[in-house]
Amino acid sequence: MAVDYLSALNVGSGLNTTELIDTLVNAERAPTESLITTGKEERTVNISSVGRIKQGYSDFNSALTPLDGITGLTASHIGSSLDIEISDSTIAKNFSSNIEINSLAASQNLVFDGFSAVTSSVGTGTLEISLGNRESLTVVETTDGSSSNVEIQSITGLDSVAITALAGKTITLSDGTNTVSHTFSAGALTVAETSTGSDSVVEVQSITGLDATGLANLAGQTLTLSDGTNSIIHTFDSAPADLDAMVTALSNATGYADLEFGITAGTDALTLTYEAVGEASLATAITSSPSNLAAIVTGIQGATGYADLTFGVAAGTDALTLTYESNGSVSLATAETFDPNDDVTTQTITIGTQSSFTVSETTTGSDSVAEIQSIAGFDSAGLTSLAGQTVTISDGTNSIEHTFATAPADLAAVVTALQGATGYADLTFGITAGTDALTLTYESAAAQDLATAVQIGGGDSLTEVRDYINASSLDIVASVVKKSDTNYALAIKSREGLDYSMNIAVTETPASSGLSSLSYTKFNSSQETVSAADASITVDGISVTRDSNSVTDLIDGMTITLKSTTTSAETIGASYDSNTAYAAMSLFITNINTLAANIDAESKRGVNGDESGPLAGDPSIRSLRQKLRAFSTQAIPGFGSDSIYLANFGVRTELDGTLTLNETEMKAAFENDPDSFAAIMNSRVTTGSPLVSGSVSGDEYTPGAYSFTLTDGVGTLGETVLTNYGTAYASTSGDTSGVALSISGGGTDTTVYVGKSLLETFQEYAGKLLASTNELDKKIAVYNSEIEDYDAQLAALETRMASVRSQYVTKFSAMNSAVASMESTKTQLTSMMDAWTASLKA
């Protein structure tokens, strides 16, 4: 509704000035407002148009993702015992094989039951869990016990080969009640380079650690020396008198003449001098034990718990002989070895809350005064907290412990309890009461190491022990199983494979706390519900084993998942399929055309009456279209001696810029050379030598062919010197940045082909346009900024028009007042003339 401005000012003259003012203001506003509004609307449309292009690239990238790595190679299987899939398309090739699955890999499953509830206390102490290979030795009865003969058994299979294999393993013997275990050590001597080979100096190395102690440790051990190809072995029945005696023994060993180095005596070391000039690989030196059956017997007889066995152990012929102390028939003993998995670190898990008391030295021992220490924390609050807890005190060698069923009345009661603990007499100190502290007085005047004192809380529940085990880094899983309303069990399952059997050594603190119920240091059929096992497979007549049912290293680039055993051979294979390749290529070309059509629609110029696109003439959008066209026609290097083009596979560019795919040409090209199809879908690194394999990561590399040379351990790829990691070499800069090479069998100079697929090239480019602060987002930001400028111009126009309106109101008010005044004068003159005329008539 229009406002009558003059009426509002009470100066109305009867004229319609409101409409007149509005018309004048709008006539002045309209041209400028139209220009601003049109510009704003154009930029709004531009933003939507750029957004559609960006969405097109996003859809393009998503559509290409499933195509990544497709080579046209398809894995197949006839049967139902396994699944097979291509896991690495860069190395997978066509093949056909017969496979038989004799047995599946299995996870060991241990069950410890007898707990009345999930909250039952399990005990306190530590679980030392190791993973490894547990194997049983053969135990046979040789002589029955009778009134005149004790029973004799033998453990067979300990010939020279088996004895050598015991290095680093633990052998366990049991009579069914008591168990004894002994671990046979194996170690490596340190090999160091002392002089690098050059034109005039041969390379010299030393094997250190052969001082007096090292020589003494060689008794019963076997020493192996190797140059990487040849090796010699010598077993020392007794410790060699000196280094010269060692050299003499090794020089006489079989195979010494084949070694690439000569052995002489150095200082606390063997000196190895290579016969050839030039740098040579470091030698290896390994010691192993035991040397013979007698050494095995000695080790077992010295093991803790041997005296508790009901039989004695002696050496037989390729066997241990077990002689029972009592007459009569007895159950056969059990014997097994446990070989810790070198790839797994043994973990110690503490069960029960454990905290240390503060131990401090109060008086240092001297000639006349014994050393005195105190253990603080036995004030009234500390005494109260001892209820249900265990206190352990150790001098570093001996220890005592006492569990307080209730809180002790005072410090004297604590002292009395500890003095009555088993082992108190073996401690090197006496315990008396101090002030809020235990006082330890050492028996000798000499300075002593500080004692240790630990307070251990009540046993953790079954569920808490489960959580402790699951929190470890071991590849095992613990769970609580309800077997009945009054019987709960802790089940522990390892990963698949014979080398992942569990060994659980328990240390109870305090003794008899109940934690020993989780011990598993020897086979127990009541606890082991499933034994660990490797998968046994036969492929084309070749028997192999694997520690998992997911097999990734049997056939290059293939993952085989074993599901069940077979009764007859089944066929697995992979073959190139032109239909698969064509379908992938067709989808690739369709998505390129869709993206191009999207850009064309937004940037087309209006010709022959057609409407122009919102971004017509925009140079940056035109650049996107040109880049897309260039990608589809460019050379693809790095997949062989010659570059590859889309045109090789029947792709043509039409006059309107779209791509077409000739199915017949494409399939013919693929069938003729399926490997070259990788250039379209599958980035990879290949080499001209079977001794050199490669891979690439990141996107900083430049595709192409590069010469690889390996000279004196220094690898060069193109113009880049590679970083050496043993048998691996990596490029961290230059055109080959991100390329890694693995060398086997000494390696060889060759050509390395680094290929980036056309698909990956497209994906990288699309990814950059979708990344933060990308080119398209910057364009949208510019358009938004221009829209803000247009909004500011409209606001300024509105302000200016308000001022113009005000001026018109003022002017028309003055005019209206003048007209009104003239009307008043006219009225007065009319009245006067009317009066004068009337007077004349009179």
Automatic annotation (TrEMBL):
BP GO terms, sorted: bacterial-type flagellum-dependent cell motility; cell adhesion
The UniProt record lists the keyword Protein biosynthesis: no
Coiled-coil region list: 773-807
GO molecular function, one term: hydrolase activity, acting on glycosyl bonds
Top-level lineage group: Bacteria
An example Gene Ontology CC term for this record: bacterial-type flagellum hook
Heme in keyword set: no
Pfam families listed in its UniProt record: FliD_C (PF07195), FliD_N (PF02465)
Keywords from the named record: Bacterial flagellum, Cell projection, Cilium, Coiled coil, Flagellum, Glycosidase, Hydrolase, Secreted
Flagellar hook-associated protein 2 C-terminal domain ranges (all copies): 532-823
Domain Flagellar hook-associated protein 2 N-terminal as annotated: residue spans: 13-108
Subcellular localization: Secreted; Bacterial flagellum
Function: Required for morphogenesis and for the elongation of the flagellar filament by facilitating polymerization of the flagellin monomers at the tip of growing filament. Forms a capping structure, which prevents flagellin subunits (transported through the central channel of the flagellum) from leaking out without polymerization at the distal end.
Family indicated by similarity: Belongs to the FliD family.
Subunit structure of this chain's protein: Homopentamer.
Name of protein: Flagellar hook-associated protein 2
